[in-house]
Amino acid sequence: MTKRKISQFFTYLLLFLVTAYYLIPILVLVSTSLKPEGQVLSRTWEWIPREFTLENYKYVLQNFPFLKWTLNSLLVTSGTVLLTLMISLPAGYAFARLKMRGKNILFSLVMLTIMIPFFAYTPQLYLLITKMGLKNTYLGLIIPMSTSGVSIFLFKQFIEQLPPDLDEAAVLDGCSNWGVFLRIIMPLMKPAIVTSVIFTAVKSWNSLMWPLIASSDNAVKTLPVGLSVNIFQVETGLANQPPYGVVMAAALLSIIFPVLLFIFLQRYFVQGIATTGLK
Amino acid sequence: MLKKYQILALLLALSLVFVSCSKTPKTAETANTTSAETEVEAPAEKTTIVFWNGVGAPENVVLTELVKEYNETNQDNVYVEEVILDWSTLYSKILLDFETGTPPDIMTIQQSGLYQNVDLGILADITDLMPEYGFEKEDFVESAWNGSFIDGKQYAVPFDLHPLALYYNTGLFEEAGLDPANPPATMKEFLSAAQKLTKDTNGDGTTDQYGMGLAYSGGLPFRLWMSLLWQHDGGNVLNEDNTAAAFNTEAGLESLEFLHDLVYTYKVIPEQEQSPDEDFMKGIVGMVISGPWSQFDFNSVDGLEYATAPLPVFYDQEAAWADSHMLALPDTKDETRMAAAMSFARFLSDNSLTWTQKAGHLPVKQSVLESADFKALDKAQAFAETLPNAHYYPSIKNESLVFGRDSNSPFVVLMESTLLNTKTRQEALNEVEIMVNELLSQ
Amino acid sequence: MFSKKRINFGSAGWFLLPYFLIYFIFFFLPAISILPMSFTEWSIVGTPKFIGFENFIKIFNDRYFVKTLSNTFFYTILVTVILSVLGLLLAILLNQKLRGRSIARTIVIMPYVISSAVAGILWRWMFERNFGIINNYLQQFGLPFVGWLSDPNIALYSIVIMNIWWSVGFNTVTFLAAIQGIPEELYQAAQVDGASSLQSFFYITIPQLKPIILYVTVLCAANSFQMFDEAYVMTQGGPLGSTTTLVYKSYVEAFKNFRLGYSAALSVITCLIIIMITLIQMGANKRRNA
Q1: Do the beta carbons of residue B118 and residue B353 sit within 8 Å?
Q2: Of A126-130, B196-200, C52-56, C236-240, minimum mean pLDDT range
Q3: Closest alpha carbon to C240 in B223, B224, B408
Q4: Which of C148, C151, C236, C246 to mutate to test the interface with B (most CBs of B within 10 A)?
Q5: What is the DSSP string of A132-174?
Q6: Which residue in B has a C-alpha nearest to residue A133's C-alpha?
Q7: ipTM given for this complex
Q8: A130 touches chain C (CB under 8 A)
Q9: CATH number of B43-159+324-350
Q10: Subunit contact A254:C30, Cβ cutoff 8 A
């Protein structure tokens, strides 16, 4: 009993320390965003602002089309997530379960998307998108961000982890491949789909390089592009300093949606246990 | 099972929404009326031109205001659609969009980036257009006017100039017993001021206030070093026809040793300093050498009392590095749009005082420089005094390679080796001389 | 006869078609062009000029190439090992039935959703040598200043520290999801057999997670080998090239210097190395399975 208590104590201690490490920089972020610029530049660091101000938030929201950017980002992100799921789920299943000649070669081709740095081919991609008339459109942002094989790879690995008896039985019962995929595999894929949604959404939400080049037009400008071009410059390097209060306020405003998404999707991680654990 | 088909149908419907959404801006683009920041549709009879604003946050806001004003007031029948970019995106995007035949009609450019873009054939020769729109040589600061020429042809309208000068914290000057009305003008005065400003204010045995701020990396350190080099009689970065390095000399070494000594011998600059502007705003450093753009940040801090002075003369003569923002026309060969672009350039040039008042950069028109409104800007005067002695980088094709600001760029290597004390100054100079010569021979 | 000619919509090809359609046009076509491009001199405007192996020769003669390569490898190994192990441990910790678990999960994942630009600016500011928050506290404890980003021997480690905070969430989420797929009966059976929790970790959790461990390590290695954003925002590849990676260099060549052929050659080298690393990882995984 006592041994168990001690181990529980250490587990909580560990949990506390780990959480603290991840929380502290976030607190710096929050605290700075609530300080007036003069206090941000004080010599010593203070955790709690001497004087609270919402000026930084007001500045961001009033001087820039922040909502427009957010809306654009929401559109692009949900588009990327949907497209990625639609094309990657069947492909992941095929790679994990179906027989086909040249499958390994095709899978190596998928892996190429992970191995070639994105901006190595950005100029060619841009020229292609322009020729197709997709420049400064949502589709021009969504499609190139959906080619990543990360999700296919994840789905393949997940399905390989599932016991094969399930779908073998279904095939014997005369179920088609699509039937197995939709009725047997898909329901078991929830954690993997949730994971993929989180990754794809975060990656698309934050992606800067491609939208910066492909969507400088105000009509489709996404949040990261707006932030980095209109509010603070990422590339100024060491010489210039951005107005930290404003940067942090903009940063906090920009992570609201991804954090909400995670909080919402988190319950699926717990549900997984409940459904597989047969008691 | 119905549920699954419902989901599939939903997915399909959503994807259709995206397709239709994506079409809206596309059709708008072909009609050349993409909604700009102002969300005002241009009347059909006006000439719509696209303007790329690449000066970067936070100053770009000022240009945006000017664009808005022009759209509301101009009699030229022109509508300007602004696209906000940063410098590095602007320079790569112009190549891509020029290649695909969709360049903007007018864009900001730095004097230092002019040669490269002219060499690639992107910019239109506007030598003959200039007088038509009332741009005359006599109206401009000579160095800025000359800077807009490449091989005898003019490719840009000079818009501003930003030379280096000295910023000093007047409050800290007084505390240290220095006279804020008499800023240091020579090396001796500078050193003594810096040493007086360097102190341990709370008595814990470590220095917590320094005489000067200087970052160990980025563009500013080597621009300062070049300024010191140019302050020597006959000191030069490259040889006369810009084909080889000419900085590995007594003058180059002396300037480099001096900057090194400021950190490691006199200890008036914090070691490995990252952000001198920020430290200046915090009152940790008493002086900082920077361009007029820093005023924008400095003015945002309540209670920061500062003044400016021309760069002290450390050696034989006055000299300071400078660059300049210009307005250039990509070669669209469309006369109507080029005419509209020139009218817009004329407006910006006529209103460059607003740019100076709000963003700090110096005007390059004599009439503005002599105006009472400009004279009223006391912090700008130090920069104006520097104008006759402003030096651009030597004009070369490989500007971004030779004068680059990345970690492997030659002059960044030079300054980092010096200010982080990893090599002797002579070793650093020798190494960088080889690098520069290699790049110039390509 | 007829049934044989009918198209079989259930064959693997139909599952793969939608992806490969998009893949081919929007990835393969532009991406494959870096191979021929690496043998040319091209600055976007104008036509590429064929120059044979000159770009590759130039790269291997570059005085900083070896350093860049060793930076990249060192960083990749360090990050892959630390982030994979830490990601798994965090996932297990956050999967315990503890009070405050969901809050802790959200906090651990939160940094991962912050954009690289903001994360970089935030850490650059905290790492500031003379007056930054971290050194401020070190000083209060009587410790000397650390040049987190300005000391060439330390800067790369600082990026690793920042990454432990910023990107471990990816691995944690993946492992967390994968752990849900392990049938609980296995643990119950082990408990009945009197296995300790450490034993069930090594004999149940690890073997069950094998495909996902492979996934995480392969991705982690490929991603960290392509580390760019962190260096771009925090150090610009410095000081003295100590945080310049292959990808950073090819970015500078393409987008700052407009030497696209040279940049493409660097990308080809990068890609070949990542393929090699992945093959080694997959091979090692197969051997363990056999």
Answers
A1: no
A2: C236-240
A3: B408
A4: C236
A5: TT-TTSHHHHHHHHT--THHHHHHHHHHHHS-THHHHHHHHTT
A6: B26
A7: 0.88
A8: no
A9: 3.40.190.10
A10: no
- Would residue C281 count as lying in a domain? yes
| Domain B43-159+324-350 shares a fold with domain B165-321+395-440 | yes
Band (pLDDT 50/70/90 cuts) for residue B435 is very high
- Range scoring the smallest mean pLDDT among A4-18, B134-148, B157-171, B224-238: A4-18
- Distance from the Cα of B8 to chain C's closest Cα (Å) equals 15
Residues of C in contact with A205 (CB under 8 A): 113, 115
Question: Which member of C239, C254, C256 has the closest CB to residue B216?
Answer: C239
Chain B contact set for A38 (CB, 8 A): 301-303
Cβ separation B57–A232 shorter than 8 A: yes
Q: What angle do CA B157, B158, B163 make, to 5 degrees?
A: 165
**CA–CA gap between residue A115 and residue A137 (Å, rounded):** 27
For residue B85, list chain A residues with Cβ-Cβ distance below 8 A.
216, 229
A237/B217 touch (CB, cutoff 8 Å), yes or no: yes
Range 176-235 of A in CB contact (< 8 A) with C: 176-178, 181, 188, 191-192, 194-195, 198-199, 202, 205-206, 208, 224, 227-228, 232, 234-235
Residue B213: closest CA among chain C residues belongs to which residue?
C130
**Number of separate domains in chain C:** 1
CB C240 within 8 A of CB C149: no
User: What Rg value do the Cα atoms of chain C yield, rounded?
Assistant: 24
- pLDDT (average), residues C8-13: 77
- Per-residue burial over A142-160, b if 16 or more Cβ lie within 10 Å, else e, is bbbbbbbbbbbbbbbbbbb
Res. A71: pLDDT tops 80: yes
Look at residue C114 and tell me whether its pLDDT is greater than 50. yes
Is C114 a domain residue?
yes
**Token digits for B73?**
């007031």
Task: Give chain A's length.
Answer: 279
CATH superfamily of B165-321+395-440: Periplasmic binding protein-like II (3.40.190.10)
Say which CATH class A65-231 falls into: mainly alpha
- For residue B38, the model assigns a pLDDT of 41
Q: Which of A12, A206, A262 sits opposite C109 (nearest CB)?
A: A262
Under an 8 A CB cutoff, do B18 and A79 touch? Answer: yes
**For residues A69 and A208, is the Cβ–Cβ distance under 8 A?**
no
Q: Which residues contact A191 (CB under 8 A, 6 or more apart)?
A: A158, A268, A269, A272, C176, C177, C178, C180, C181
pLDDT tens track for C16-72: 999 999 999 999 999 999 999 999 999 888 889 999 999 999 999 988 899 999 999
pLDDT for the residue numbered A270: 59
Measure in Å the smallest separation between the Cα of B96 and chain C Cα atoms: 6
In a domain, C25, yes or no: no
The answer to the question of residue C18 being in a domain is: no
Where do the domains of chain B lie?
43-159+324-350, 165-321+395-440
The reply to whether C129 touches chain B by the CB within 8 Å rule is: yes
Each residue's pLDDT tens digit, B254-312: 999 999 999 999 999 999 998 898 899 989 999 999 999 888 888 888 889 999 999 99
Instruction: Please indicate whether, in this complex, the C-beta atoms of C238 and B271 are within 8 angstroms of each other.
Output: no
C-alpha–C-alpha distance, residues C37 and C260, integer Å: 8
Residues of B in contact with A78 (CB under 8 A): 14
The answer to which of B376-385, C37-46, C181-190, C266-275 has the lowest mean pLDDT is: C181-190
Domain boundaries, chain A: 65-231
- Rg of chain A over all Cα atoms, to the nearest angstrom: 23
pLDDT in tens, B94-135: 999 999 898 999 999 999 999 999 999 999 999 999 999 999
The chain-wide mean pLDDT, for chain A, equals: 86
C58-109: pLDDT as tens digits: 999 988 899 999 999 999 999 999 999 999 999 999 988 888 888 898 899 8
Q: Check B407 against C128: CB less than 8 A apart.
A: no
Q: Which domain holds residue C274?
A: 54-289
